[in-house]
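Feature request, filed as a ticket because there's no other form

It would be nice if the structure record came with a short human-readable summary line next to the tokens. Right now we just get the raw output. Example of a typical job, pasted below so the devs can see what we mean:
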Amino acid sequence: MKKNVLFFLLIGLAASAVAQEPSLTAKEKKAGWILLFDGKDFAGWQKANGKPMGDSGWVAANGVLSTTGHGHGGDIVTNREFTDFEFTLDFKLEKGTNSGIKYHLLKNSSLGCEYQIIDDANHVDAKLGKNGDRTLAALYDLIPPSADKKVMPLGEWNHVRIISKGNHAEHWLNGKKMLEYERGSEAFKKLVAESKFKNEKGFSEPNSSPILLQEHGDVIHYRNIKIRNL
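Raw output as currently delivered:
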């Protein structure tokens, strides 16, 4: 059996044991939540370069959206754009995972504010940056998460919540707020000026853009991807 087929089969068998197609409760629907992933296919998504999903390095099955880990298939983005929102999903790390959730992307770019998704213990990038600002739940290369974060063991699901309204934004992990920031503040401007984004005009400014899931050549699993406008 070819490796690709075996990989997808194993993912399907594993996922079917614990996963189900996502749904919204009546309360969530009333609050304005929508599903961004139907659990079955790539409807509502495209490659960040504007091309259809095709052979993208991603697989959608049994309620889970996963990367294959067979090389750089490319980042993917929602077909819809969002400005002020509350966004949630679940993610499951494997050993050495590096991925991310990006929002407020620069126009025609994959650069934007990034909720870092990474295996802190086994990926070298988590050891780089300053004071942990490239670790799980960080605002990548800018703000480290709270020191008391709770991360589930490899192979178990974690829960993300991102809030962005006006100049205010928050990152949450497993029910705890990890960080918050105010775009336009002098403190935030200083962080940007000292980061890899210092020459990116308009970086992090509130704007309408898709939500991006990063494909970094590693295996990552996402499910229950939801958003509501604020």
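Something like this underneath would help us a lot:
The mean pLDDT is 90.
The helical segments are 3-18, 26-31, 186-193.
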